[in-house]
Amino acid sequence: xxxxxxxxxxxxxxxxxxxxxxxxxxxxxxxxxxxxxxxxxxxxxxxxxxxxxxxxxxxxxxxxxxxxxxxxxxxxxxxxxxxxxxxxxxxxxxxxxxxxxxxxxxxxxxxxxxxxxxxxxxxx
Length: 124
Fold this sequence. Notes:
- The protein is α+β, with helices and mostly antiparallel strands.
- The chain has two domains: about 1-45, no CATH class; about 60-115, no CATH class.
- The protein has three helices and two strands; from the N terminus they run βαβαα.
- It has a two-stranded parallel ribbon.
- Strand 1, helix 1 and strand 2 form a beta-alpha-beta unit.
- The chain starts with about 60 loop residues before the first strand and ends in a 9-residue tail after the last helix.
């Protein structure tokens, strides 16, 4: 069974109401009263299986990495790394290189590409 989509009340009727879930609070709300034929209400029973909980959408388990030595302890089959925000540019590049050598997925590598962009064309 796939992931259940819970949509916000009225999101299908109005463009200004986004899909992101909000609890229905109206006094006469059919969704709040859980009437038959209406969208389902978010409840604890819709929880994911224990094996899927805490996984990144890519399917890997996330590991926070602060230095290149920590990359060696990561299992490339089941885990992906996220580089800590406090890591500087030089160490970040070393971590990414070591991850590529070991075949490990880096979840926040995009930030590095943005920083190393051509600065001459920026802010014309």
